[in-house]
Amino acid sequence: MLTIVLIVAKKPGNIPDQSTWILSPDASYVYYCANETVDGVEYQYIPETNGIPLVSDMSSSIMTRQIDISKFGVIFAGAQKNIGPAGVTVVIVREDLIGNAMKVCPSIFDFKNVEANQSIHNTPATFSVYVMNLVFEWIKSNGGVPEMENLAILKSEHLYDTIKNSNGFYSCPINENCRSRMNVPFRVGGDGGDEALEEQFLVETKRLNMHQLKGHRSVGGIRASLYNAVTYEDVDGLVKFMLEFQKNHS
User: CA-CA 20 to 30 A from 149: which of 45, 156, 164, 180?
Assistant: First the structure.
């Protein structure tokens, strides 16, 4: 029997305290997205499920923080954020869960079939796999996941501190205890944002070769993504621009 447990936040930009979660003991699994990219919400901890298999989508945060793999039943992650181009999904499965896919699951997604065929049950995206391997080598040669985590903290704190110290010119709508290190959304010109100022912000950053800073169409504003390929120097360049923009438009 498949039992689904739904945990709903009272407002966007918030994760309900785990003490309020009600988990059915007969639940098949508990699923959560480790980092939500649109609103910029990230779990800063691994949920406790009391033995229920824990499944997580880590597409946008894998390889950016150290985690205890033993606490998960399944981890899956699209490569396109931190480990290569689109076309590859990394899946880590606990051995006792292999072969327990629902009958309606296509064979290509049946972990038993994938394992039996050494991950080539279908024709793989060979170029994407090759690039992913190069990225893994790059991460390893640059201090591994511990260093990627350290840089993620430094980059995100630099940007969040700039927002915090702007006297309200910039604002972030996400609760501090669940702010993403990967995706930093903010408004320009006050809490609700000034759309004219934000449009000017985007025009000027584009002139400086800073691209894709427009917030998701469902929430608006500005969003800076700080994946592993983004350097601290890149973030510092954005911060320096933000300070200058604030000076010119306050």
Answer: 164
- Report the alpha-carbon distance of residue 40 to residue 184 in Å, rounded: 6
Q: Helix H segments across the chain?
A: 111-116, 126-141, 144-164, 195-207, 232-249
End position of a domain, from candidates 142, 171, 187 = 142
Tokens of 237: 């360049």
Contacts of 232 (CB under 8 A, 6+ apart): 151, 154, 155, 158
Among 91, 125, 142, which residue terminates a domain?
Answer: 142
Give the tokens for residue 143: 């201090």
Task: Identify how many contiguous H helices and E strands the chain contains and give both numbers.
Answer: 5, 9
Phi, psi for 12 (deg, rounded to 5): -60, 150
81-132 tens-digit pLDDT: 999 999 899 989 898 888 765 544 556 667 777 788 787 777 888 999 999 9
pLDDT attached to residue 10: 62
CA atoms of 103 and 131, how far apart (whole Å) = 33
CATH number for 59: 3.40.640.10
pLDDT digit string, tens, across residues 15-42: 888 888 877 777 788 889 999 999 999 9
Calculate the alpha carbon distances from 28 to 4, 45, 204 in Å.
7, 21, 50
> Domains in the chain: how many in total?
2
8 A C-beta contact, residue 90 and residue 107:
no
Q: HSE of 21 in the Cβ direction (CA atoms, 13 Å)?
A: 18
Q: Are residues 123 and 154 in the same domain?
A: no
Q: Is 234 in a helix, a strand, or coil?
A: helix
Domain span including residue 73:
4-142
